[in-house]
């Protein structure tokens, strides 16, 4: 065991803080240290962002996940900085060990989190659940190691050439902050789209390992004992072997984990610029399921119940021009096109890959009735909120919002008062707006907040619900993959400016397979019995979901 050196007398330089024996000139040595600071800062921010992104994809509620991950990491960085003070007497060896540990923990964090998610089931429940505890543990460990870097690097740069503390801090943090900028931009624009979460994290760990190892063994190697050099060399080789092996096996691991999450019927799995898209089943008599970011958006067992309930009440009235917000799978458009008199259907879908699959995947195209081959259907790839800001006013007889659940943070703006105000402007005289508002029984406050928000935007509403286990309801949109149970119902709101819309089916139109006028009235009464009063409207600056 190596004991620390005794404290130096006041006013003298401790023996372990003397000038470093460098193989290069001091100016070159300082440049190499600052370059290492730049690289390590980039890697550190990538670790933070990939934890936030992974938690958001698998858990949802990006605001909560980002707050938890970042606050835990910043707290841990402070603790790590304090702990590193005791390691300054062996700053080079300690920095090498910290970088090897950070490369291993940060590089493997994405695979570990995905493995726990895949093989333990849903992430729902309390923060005490295993996967969420693991997320916090990784945030804590990575934060501790990142926090330990700065004091050690400060000691190393001062050992090259002594300068005033203010100047050294300025140099160090300048390189650190510029590196953080590069890492922050590289993650969403380079690593994530080109390599994905798993490979991107492994590559980041490898770069981190090489930078730290090269600096310590190459620049400060003469200050290390023979035992410390061999220890760091073998540690770096072992960590590199782990990361390289994981990189070789990452595709097989991802396939196995995907099968654990979605079952053995995975036919299509791709990462678009917007989300992860997975199609299962759809062949040999197996029902087709469409998952977006791990959430079930379409279940071939009962999707017709959802889409009929969303579309048919809104079609009772003029329906020459119809706007569908979301609905890139084409299933809402299928129900719209069953009505005579429909001249044009505009679909605004943010993810062109969903539309491509709805056109070309045989099972999904068969399920949607090949609607994209109908000349009346026109697709625009855009964010629904931003598209509505430039939409022509008083154009559509029917607007259908077939959007992700309001409980998902990325969808919050699509259930805001501002959004409904924009949708209201696109409605022609006598027009109707139909919205999927989430389950009524399990999330009544969310459902009735949607209703309140629509009324705050100047719409009159008619809420209703459909489903229930006794109705043969199997699974609904936005149910997490692997979740143990489905919601008991779907909740909808039909709205119109001016008079309250009549919640009726078009007597001259095609009748739904599972809905009648009597059942629709009963569904409206069932929803009304659970009304929650006094809820505030949700806005962009004050979201309520």
Automatic annotation (TrEMBL):
Bilayer topology: Multi-pass membrane protein
Residues bound to S-methyl-5'-thioadenosine: 275, 349, 383-384
Key words, A-Z: Cell membrane, Membrane, Polyamine biosynthesis, Spermidine biosynthesis, Transferase, Transmembrane, Transmembrane helix
EC number(s) reported in the record: 2.5.1.16
Catalytic activity: S-adenosyl 3-(methylsulfanyl)propylamine + putrescine = S-methyl-5'-thioadenosine + spermidine + H(+)
Stated family: Belongs to the spermidine/spermine synthase family.
Assembly and oligomerization: Homodimer or homotetramer.
Record-linked PANTHER family: THERMOSPERMINE SYNTHASE ACAULIS5
Protein name: Polyamine aminopropyltransferase
Organism from which the protein derives: Streptomyces plumbiresistens
Gene encoding the protein: speE
